[in-house]
Write the structure tokens for this entry.
Amino acid sequence: MYAMNSFGCASRTALARNVPLFGYSKSVVPSLIFSGELVPVAHMEARMGVVGLFYIHLLKKSLGCARNELWMDSTQGRFCRGPIGPKCWDWPEGHFDVIVPSDVEFLKEDVVIRYFTSKEDDLVLLSTLGYSCHSERLDDIPATSTRIHVISGLTNSTIAFYQNVRWRSWTDCLGTRQEMPDGATRFCLRDNRRKIEVDTANESYAWLSQVSSVFHAHNISMDEDLSTYKLVYPYLELTGTIQKSKRKRQRRQSLDTPIYFIILPSPDPVYHWSFDPTGQTLLSPEMCKYLGLPFKLSLEVTPCQLSWPTKVYKAVRDYQIAKGFDPKTTDFAQSLRYPIFDVVLAENRFEEIIEEQHEMELVESGDPPLPTVRDDLGPVLDSSGYDWHQVTDESPEEWDDCFSLDSLFFETEGSTNTSQGSPNDMAMESA
């Protein structure tokens, strides 16, 4: 049996060893106070750091308990399973099936990194390294934020980029995720929930798995301060709800085929519903309305950037070498089936600057400018700025039947007309 002291800690009266009584509290809630009490994880989470929280997530799976059943034994320097304590923070469930020690030393980032380096578990190590970053949201929208790219903080130039985005869904009504041969992502609808939530990966694991090859291509030394290199990306989130009326749910459940949600890898999200597992045949707006499927989802875009200290880049380089990979190549990233970044060499950036200067000279001379032929860097937004939270109609007519963000359809339950609902109108409701 456990008693709670005045600090909210659990005192052990039924553990393997005897625990001496330290005192008696005469507060509003009298309680016995024991020496060597257990401290609930919830009381330490704010000071753990992200890598420490990731370790706790792995530890609770190792011990087969919930996060709020984890307690720290301060006298033993270990974590243990105990009674249900204060509520802990939510953590997205991962698919890692690893056993980690219960030593409190594993709250230290370097200890966790060394441990997983020795275990040669690629994904867990990259997750740990990914969490050891410095992250921040950007107030000013960079001109290249429509794609994932890496910039040098010293020169403010792009050294590598990945044009497309990869989509994922963690919970609620979108179930099994599958990558399609054309790069699209397919989700199978689960009709026991209402909420749709799809977001993009920041590709930090992909970047870390091939960063040594990019640095090698640019002759960047591992002895530099590599924290000046930033992984800049737009975090995109699509949300919506499935209509739950009894009639429309019966219509969905009476179908003999699954319903698929297909989304293309473009940074400007294009998506649709389909009965076809290949995603080639699109459901019409009328059919979506009939089944209660949202034709228009709400989009939120948050520009972010990540950076890592030099020790992290060195750790992943040494790990590749230990596993027999040449860090000057992208072999390690390819073995994990990660997308490969395109390297932007200094020569390409120089050619682009010359090209832009030439255009300016033509305009100033009064001659009409020639059409600009851009390189693989992709589109650059207008310098006047771009409202990330506003969707403009720029789609070609051939996409009229496609569920892109440039088409608008939102049905309110019981209505027979389509309307342009605001993001608040289309916000997710509780399942």
